[in-house]
Amino acid sequence: SSRARGDKPDALAALQAANEELRAKLTDIQIELQQEKSKVSKLEREKNQEVKQIKEHEQHKSTVVVTELKVKLHEDKMKELQAVRETLLRQHEAELLRVIKIKDNEIQRLQTLLNAVRDGAPDKVKTVLLSEAKEEAKRGFEVEKIKMQQEISELKGAKKQVEEALTMVIQADKIKAAEIRSVYHLHQEEITRIKRECEREIRRL
């Protein structure tokens, strides 16, 4: 009986010691768990910051791409305008040459009449004037006819150039808009992928 009473305090002491050891381990586990939670929170903050930086970087890249596309579109339009300007300049030069040729012919005609007057031949002057008048009328008609034909042809050509330029600009706008949409979707997919990887990493931790 005394031995049984002696064993009971020893068992109680052993139980208390085991209980204290378990409490100490539980405290250590709680501390470790809290540390792991802090690490996970820190990683979450870091990942969120990283995702934010990546998103800002991708938005910046998108802005740069859009700006570059706008600049290229502007350059293409300026090139088209320069081509139209050069075409109009060539047409103007051709018109000047035509006017100069007409004036030269007029000077030559007047010189011929002046020579006839100096020679003192009225009949000859009359014949020359009549011939010149007929020739002038015919030439004037032909010039006006050619001029109208040229103007019609130039108007058709200018209309065709404008239509082609407009078609090219519209096509370029469509292509650039498609490129911008494609770049934007790629960026969104990349951001989504990075976000999923971060979430998987956070869950793993």
Task: Describe the fold and architecture.
This protein is an all-alpha fold. The chain has a domain at 12-120. The chain is built from two helices and no strands. Helix 1 runs antiparallel to helix 2. The longest helix is centred in the N-terminal third of the chain and has 118 residues, at 2-119. The chain is rod-shaped and about 165 Å long. The mean pLDDT is 82.
What fraction strand?
Answer: under 5%
The number of strands is: 0
Q: For the CA atoms, what is the radius of gyration?
A: 48 Å
What structural category characterises the helix and strand content?
A: mainly alpha
Give the helix tally. Answer: 2
Shape: rod-shaped
Distance between the first and last residues' Cα:
57 Å
What is the residue-mean pLDDT, rounded to a whole number?
82
N-to-C SSE string, H for helix and E for strand: HH
Helix content: over 70%
The biggest beta sheet reads: none
Low-pLDDT residue intervals, each spanning 5 or more residues: none
Chain-wise SSE layout:
Elements: H1 2-119, H2 122-204
Helix pairs in contact: 1-2
Coiled coil: 12-91
GO molecular function, one term: kinase binding
Keywords: Coiled coil
Briefly, what is this?
This protein is mainly α.
Which keywords apply here?
205 residues; mainly alpha; rod-shaped
